[in-house]
Structures are given as C-alpha cells and as structure tokens.
Design brief:
By secondary structure, the chain is α/β, with parallel strands linked by helices. The protein has 12 helices and 12 strands. Helix content is 36%, strand content 18%. It is globular, with a radius of gyration of 20 Å.
Length: 354
C-alpha cells in the first residue's frame, strides 16, 4: 500500500483544535485489508459504523441511535464502542484497517479535517475529527460533509455512474448539496460549496436552523415539511385524524413521504406544503443549474422517499425555469442508494484520493 500518513498528532491538538496544515492521502493501492466508514448525523442522534472490503462492499454495519441530543464526547464514545465491534480480531482475518472515511451532517473543512459546526448539536465547533480517528484506528482518515460523501457514493455506485457533472441534493433533517465534477467533489475555497440549504428563496420566510430566514432548508427539509404539517393540522380535525391513523397515534413520527401522499389524496394543508416544496426547491435548483450546468440532479434523503410525487413535479418546475440549453441534457432522479447513501459515502471516501 502506498500512502502518506497524517503526521503524529499530540493530545494537545485534540484539545485545542490545532491541526496539521497539510492533509494528503495518496491512492489506496493495497490488495488486502479493510476500510471503516462512519456516519454522524446532523443532530448526533444517529451514528453508524461499517466495515467494508476494498471493493466497497459493506461486510458489517452497526447503527445505534440515541434518544436525547448528545454532546460530542457521548457520540464519540458510542462510535468507539461500535468501531471495536466491527473491527474485532475475528473480523479482520483478511487484513488490517487501511483507512477511515467519515460523513458528517454539518459544516466540514475537509482540507483541514475539522468539523466546523453541527447546527443541531453541541460541542463540535472546530472539532479535529480527522485527527481523532487517525489516532483511534492508527490509519489515515478522510472526513467530509455527508452530502458530499453521498454525492460521491451515488457517482461511483448509484444513479450517477458515467455522468460527468452531478449535483446531489440531500433532503433530510437539513438540506445539503454535493457537486461531483469529473469524479471529484468540488469543495470551494472554504469547503462550504454545496450548502444549498442556506440559499435564500423566500424573503421573510420561516426561520432556518442557522438563524436566518427564508432559507431553502426552512421550507423543503424533512423537519420543515413534517413540522408545518403537524402545526397546521391543529386546525384541521380531519387531517389530524388521518395522520394519527398513518402513524399509529405517534404524529411526531410523521414522514415527509406521508405528507406527499396526503397531498396527492387531496388534503389541502398537505397540498399547500408540498406546493411550496416544489416551488422553492425548484427555484433554488434552477439557479444552480444555470451556474454549474449538470447533466443530473440526484435527490436523496428522507424527503426523496416520496419518489415520483417529488421528482416529477420538481423536474417540470426546473424545466420551466431554465434556459433550453441549460436543461437540454438534464435529468432529475431519485438516488438509488436510499437511506444507505451517507454510510456508503463514508466508505467511498475511505477508498478515494484526497
């Protein structure tokens, strides 16, 4: 195997956030061994760890959600326990851990190996996560935003295979985007390229998790969709009754796909919410299409589980708003990796150049 290990990191670096200025991992050339993929959600409530072979096939995965939003220490302690489980000696008979990939649901500086912030969790500001896992597993680690990681996975293993310019849109608790151009993620100067959830689409619109107003995430994310449905159904007894039946009395478990189905069945509250999603997500994506001219937009995350109820009207909206030449070869599709996209993205990161 040919690699350049991230240089030794002192304990003080983990405490103060001081990191090495250069982070280069050469191409993985080994023929035997494993990689580890780790997913950390935007709230820290959900973590997953996977052991994969060098073909990217997941051999074992462990996922342990938490009930209460934890701090970074609690999350990392749980991940350490999951790593120990998937990397036990009997699992590694074919070789050692060669590299680690981590997909994080927040602002990530991939070039420095830092988590800049998680909007829905505490204790992550400027956290040197790459250094943490490099020391933990004694192997080079690559971290990135979960949308970038999922974009890379869809490009190599999912809906985006053989496409040259792909935009991945992760429509989950938040909204993130990842741009893959000729096989490489485009990060921008400060690693915030693709943060499309914070595009202003509606002046004076609802409050976003970042503190701003009228951002796309405040209208078209899973949390925004289900939250709006629950809030507005308080004045619609019929809608509330239907939701209670759909969720076995646990309305807080309502999914975005269920809201889309309610809209398709004619519920007026749901139709208004879904129409806003199509309208404002369409505006945001049409603007991006004119900037990067992709051949494919891949929709992922829990909102994308609505399938054609999301994809078809959204594609029509984008086609209507874009110049003919900008949309001539454009396709809008649902991601094929589904809920596994982020974890597959973490594994794909571990197999990539940095």
């Amino acid at each position: 195997m040919s690699r350049q290990h991230s240089s030794n990191v002192s304990t003080g670096a983990l405490v103060t956030g001081q990191v090495n200025p250069q982070r280069i991992t050469e191409k993985l050339l080994a023929t035997h061994g494993h990689v580890v993929g780790i997913e950390i959600s935007s709230s820290g409530l959900r973590q997953s760890v996977a052991l994969a072979n060098l073909d990217g096939e997941i051999l074992l995965r462990v996922s342990r959600p938490l009930e209460v939003v934890p701090d970074s220490t609690t999350v990392l302690q749980q991940i350490d326990a999951m790593i120990a489980e998937v990397t036990s000696p009997e699992r590694l008979v074919d070789g050692r851990i060669l590299r680690v990939g981590v997909a994080v649901g927040g602002l990530v500086d991939a070039s420095q190996g830092l988590v800049r912030t998680l909007y829905h969790a505490q204790g992550w500001d400027n956290y040197p996560l790459q250094d943490y896992f490099t020391e933990r597993l004694d192997a080079p680690c690559i971290i990135d935003n979960n949308a970038n990681a999922a974009a890379l996975a869809e490009y190599h293993r999912g809906s985006g295979v053989r496409e040259r310019v792909v935009l991945y849109v992760g429509l989950g608790r938040g909204i993130g985007g990842g741009m893959v151009i000729n096989g490489k993620v485009y990060h921008g100067v400060t690693s915030v390229a693709g943060e499309i959830g914070h595009i202003l689409v509606k002046e004076g619109g609802p409050r976003c998790s970042c503190g701003g107003y009228g951002h796309l995430e405040a209208i078209a994310s899973a949390r925004a969709i289900t939250g709006a449905m629950i809030e507005h159904s308080a004045e619609d007894a019929q809608a509330r009754s239907i939701m209670e039946r759909m969720t076995d009395g646990h309305i807080e478990r309502l999914t975005p796909a269920q809201v889309f189905h309610l809209a398709a069945e004619g519920n007026q509250v749901a139709r208004h919410i879904v129409n806003d999603v199509h309208t404002y997500l369409g505006i945001a994506l049409a603007n991006i299409v004119h900037v990067i001219n992709p051949s494919m937009i891949i929709l992922g995350g829990s909102v994308a589980q609505a399938g054609d109820l999301l994809v078809q009207p959204l594609e029509q909206q984008i086609q209507k708003l874009c110049l003919p030449e900008a949309r001539r070869e454009l396709r809008v599709v649902q991601g094929s990796l589904g809920v596994d996209a982020n974890l597959m993205g973490a594994v794909t990161l571990a197999l990539q150049d940095l």
